[in-house]
Amino acid sequence: MLKQPLTASQEDYLVAVYLICKEKQVARAKDIARRLGVRASSVTNALRVLSSLDLINYAPYDLVTMTDTGLKAAKEVVGRHEALNNFFVTVLGVDQAEAEQAACKMEHSIPKSIVDRLIQYAQYVQDCPRSDVTWKSGFGYYCTSNCGAKQCERPQSPKKKPGRKK
Questions:
Q1: In a 3-state reduction of DSSP, which class is residue 142?
Q2: Measured CA angle at 17 (ends 14, 22), to 5 deg
Q3: Is the domain of 135 the same as that of 85?
Q4: What is the pLDDT at residue 105?
Q5: Based on the domain organization, do 28 and 59 belong to the same domain?
Q6: Angle at the Cα of 15 (from 11 to 21), degrees rounded to 5?
């Protein structure tokens, strides 16, 4: 468990190290700089901070590896990103590129409890017997195949009961 929450920038560096290590077993500062499109001096500062938080193993001019704590934290960020991206594409019908950008921004701030609910809802939509139900901006739910009109009607809001106005 981390003593303090990471900033969005720290999470980005941690995920970059994680993805590079996943690909090459170790990361180098220049690989991280290239992946994030930043200067090497920025990478050095970020690596020092991540090392001080015991998230990575780092020494100047040496290879970078993940600690167990860092691996767990990076997987959590990547999981939030993937869940958000999946929700935007499969449930909301958002274009992949737009979904990717939104997920990158939101992954840093959305609480785990909300991500878990989004995952559950996406799973429900995927497993729904109405099959192929999705959302199109401005149109609500609709079916793309194997649906009858009655099955795919958008639920109506309950009618307001007559009474006093507030």
A1: strand
A2: 125
A3: yes
A4: 87
A5: yes
A6: 145
